[in-house]
UniProtKB/TrEMBL annotation:
Residues covered by region (Disordered): 1-60
UniProt-recorded name of the protein: Nudix hydrolase domain-containing protein
PROSITE patterns: NUDIX, NUDIX_BOX
Organism: Deinococcus aluminii
Presence of keyword Hydrolase: yes
UniProt feature, compositional bias: Basic residues: 15-24
The entry's keywords: Hydrolase
SUPFAM superfamilies per record: Nudix
Amino acid sequence: MPEDVKVAAGGAGGQRRRRRRRGRTPGQNSTPAPGQVSNATSVPIPAPPSKRGQKRGRPLADPRIGVGCIVLRGDEILLVRERGRWSLPKGGLEAGELVQEGARRETYEETGLVVELRDLAFIVEFQAETWGHHLQFFYTGREVGGTLAPRDPDRDVQEARFVPIRQLREFIRFRPRLVALETWLRERRPRHFVFNLDKEPAMLRKRRRVGVGAVQPDLQDEPTDEVDL
């Protein structure tokens, strides 16, 4: 039919309206071309997550971990003399070692005694610009075997022996550890002791020997540039 006839057939007073095909909104039931993103809201890409516990770019803490043991025999306590200084049996935790495993190993190496660990006695934490950050765990232990004789592979321990608790201050001269040990002997409950030695210089002052006992320890002056760690 000719075009002019089609228009006339639309009825009086009007023309037949052409039906407009509804176009589809871009991205609606359509496959986007390569490289295009459809029907999506742009979201900023988050920065890669930092290491767990690390905030504002500050480095993670890296304290030196120490482990040791308290062994009592009646009114006496087990001490070792290492490089001229007396202390509880203790040492550094080795890689891949659990804290309690390290405490048993150090006790055996420094004293020759095999111990069964009981409870956590105390934690001593201290830091100083000179020596860094240290975190030391001490457990109570019971003798179950061995012979009292140092087996230290590094040969740093010269002697191990039980000394009267009442003479403790005659032997241990590192005050942060002495404070923790004396407190535990009084209270017999676990505690966490924290010392900032840069702000508490009195904790590092040399202490005069006090009291007179039957056992005379072989004390040497501690070097000013090294602490009993």
